[in-house]
Each structure stands twice: as structure tokens, then as C-alpha cells.
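ok so i was messing around last nite and threw this chain in just to see what happens. nothing serious, just curious
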Amino acid sequence: MKLLVRNLSRSTTEQELRILFSEHGTVAECTLVLDQTTGKSKGFAFVVMPNETEAKSALSSLHETRVAKNKIRVKIAQ
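result:
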């Protein structure tokens, strides 16, 4: 299941996201979206978790939690 993580702090790294979501299960892929010009985070990412139950657990546990002072939003990617 592919999850969209929004409202990330510009300082949050892919590694931090991977660790955060790994607490809820296996993370197959974690992609922080970067600005092509500056190379800095655009404030959102995609996390792929192959197990749907684990992904739903991560979604419900992490949606609207604070990460680096920002309240993140997690939803199923379209």
C-alpha cells in the first residue's frame, strides 16, 4: 500500500521517515519529494508498505501526529 505523507518539516529526512514508519511494519520504499532546483524537501513523501494491515496501522497511528514540530497528515496515495 502506498501512503502519502504531507506537511513534513523541510528538515525531515527520508531516513527519519523510514524509521518512523518501520515501527509499524515493513517499509519497502520511502521517497521524499525534493525540489529539482534547490534539492530541498518539498514537505511531502511517499511510503510504500507491502503489508496492508501494517500500512493501515501506520496510517491511523501517525496521522496528525507531530514530527519535528509539524503535524503530519498521512493518507492512502491515489
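not much to say yet. The CA atoms of residues 2 and 75 lie 9 Å apart.
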